[in-house]
Amino acid sequence: xxxxxxxxxxxxxxxxxxHEYHPGGLMRWVKTTNHKDIGxxxxxxxxxxxxxxxxxxxxxxxxLFKPGMQIVNPEVFNQMTTLxxxxxxxxxxxxxxxxxxxxxxxxxxxxxxxxxxxxxxWSFWLLPPAALLLIISLFVPGGAPGVGWTxxxxxxxxxxxxxxxxxxxxxxxxxxxIMGSINIVTTILNLRAPGMTLMKMPLxxxxxxxxxxxxxxxxxxxxxxxxxxxxxxxxxxxxxxxAGGGDPxxxxxxxxxxGHPEVYIIAIPAFGVVSQVIPAFSRKPLFGYTSxxxxxxxxxxxxxxxxxxxxxxxxxxxxxxxxxxxxxMLIAVPTGVKVFNWVATMWKGSLxxxxxxxxxxxxxxxxxxxxxxxxxxxxxxxxxxxxxxxYVVAHFxxxxxxxxxxxxxxxIYFWLxxxxxxxYDETLGKVHFWxxxxxxxxxxxxxxxxxxAGMPRRVPDYAPQFTDFxxxxxxxxxxxxxxxxxxxxxxxxxxxxxxxxxxxxxxxADSLEWTHLPTPAPYHSFVTPPTVK
Amino acid sequence: xxxxxxNRGILVKMLVVTVVMFxxxxxxxxxxxxxxxxxxxxxxxxxxxxxLNTQVDSTRVVTLELDxxxxxxxxxxxxxxxxxxxxxxxxxxxxxxxxxNASDRPITGQAIPSYGPQVAGQFFRKQxxxxxxxxxxxxxxxxxxxxxxxxxxxxxxxxxxxxxxxxFFNVEGAAPTAAKPADGKAG
Lengths: 533, 187
Known about the structure:
The complex is a heterodimer. By secondary structure, chain A is mostly helical. Chain A has helices spanning 25-31, 35-63, 74-109, 117-125, 127-136, 162-190, 203-234, 248-282, 289-302, 318-346, 355-378, 380-386, 390-420, 426-452, 467-496, 512-515. In chain A, helix 6 packs antiparallel against helix 7 (203-234). The longest helix of chain A is centred in the first third of the chain and has 36 residues, at 74-109. The two termini of chain A are 39 Å apart. Residues 1-19 of chain A have low confidence and may be disordered. By secondary structure, chain B is α+β, with helices and mostly antiparallel strands. Helix content of chain B is 20%, strand content 36%. Chain B has one helix and nine strands; from the N terminus they run αβββββββββ.
């Protein structure tokens, strides 16, 4: 981990803050309350989790390379799908964007640090134990839960003790998210530099403000759902047990009341990153800033009103199905506003295509495909056909991987010079993009066809007619996985590089971290707040 | 310092929201039950309770007017408890009549129905009627007696009102019928 410390020498310049105690070595990271240190730890943690969850995806794709049972038994296959989902959502994507928030929000609003630095330290250090619980659950009797990342009752009530470890992991992850979110809301509302009005904030800050509110609103609901599962398992309650007067469908309602906003918790910060990158490489201000803010807010509000579109096949009344169908389609409107605004930002801009821009364009292109397949799935009669097929798998990987992950890559390449003080290798970055882009589509585009042909998801075996597409998908997956090792190499090479990066390597970048701070960003920035005109 | 207080203020508010939303998760449990109950979503529970009679023609309504008469030699008071009812053809309907023996001796009588229009008679299917048997009344006895019937769905479309009229005759001294109830109760 010490490879990350690209700016340790910066301490020496901070004699003005000599009253602060900076332990060295490992304790520096354990005790740190610095938003940049914590942001770095979040990003590395999420990358480790990304490789862990990615390894599980490799197991899944290896098993699905050809029909029949080859590598793992069905129980292990189910555990892999479950942990892959949980780890990628809660361990990789969410912490990655919290890492961005920690690094960037104070610098972009001209604050010295987050509002509650000690709580910030806690928010991060809750994550490794939670991740450990998830990993340990693989090795207890009965293994990890094989119930899918949605943790649906009644299956969760019948699992071994791995389920309890998972429930505790979810509780801890939830606490971490809530503490992080409270910190972000407080920082944004209270610590903005003079003149930095809400409507002058960079869009990335806006998206995180809204995401943090979403997290505070829905993480407790999920905590409640898993607590009910826990008491059903051990304390004789019957929330989800039909024999005791409960209802398993109730779990799905509570889960998706959390789960649908969760989708936007992942997507909205990705929108924020892309909204910083595209204007920078178009050398034009973001088109329709105000409408972007309102679009994000509308998406956030609508996300509370559409949850049962995940449950069309549970026997909803037709009236409810129609309501959820129309409400879901309505979300396409603010999302469309955002996509059109990004396109309009590029219109007649002086475009260049460095790696961050490539990943942003990949995001724009592939996220829109994922949005359209989502629109297809919102139609009740179509969804009843496609429910639990690979079409759904393709859809959400288009928005989660090509959406959120590509945007995170864009952000990392974009801010890596500011964070490390060194320029990354542009050629290798572009190679990383093209490998990721091609292999991603190889994995997931064919899965649309598999789903339309009726291949069910979460099953370790399949009918022989699906073999060809599955082989293509698996080869793509191995390629995609290996390409991410190239990314790791690029990042380490950047950290170890001796070539200093300029203060503002991107001509069109205009937020405070580029215009007001040197590169690399000093350990303590904006101790005296800048004045924003 | 005031900045710290402001931060703390937001922290407290957000913690309150967190606790409230945790409670909201639990509040969804009774809320869900109530919504299911009101909308009848979980209809599996009463699937067998109310079998729907597909013979009923709910698009038609026939007004049934009830009439009651007594021959002058019979000292009874005889009246329907409702003057008219609206019924769907095919629907099983029950109406009530009441008879009072105003004299101080036991008397036996029998009711004869008639229909207006006359054509309605063949579509008027009685399942249960006090007119099926002779009725014996103790002195001063009052009794309510039902008629249970179905109006056949084949009733001509132009018949929208049927008059059902009963007339009680004194059958004192006539030969007892096989259907005569032993204790005077309507069969």
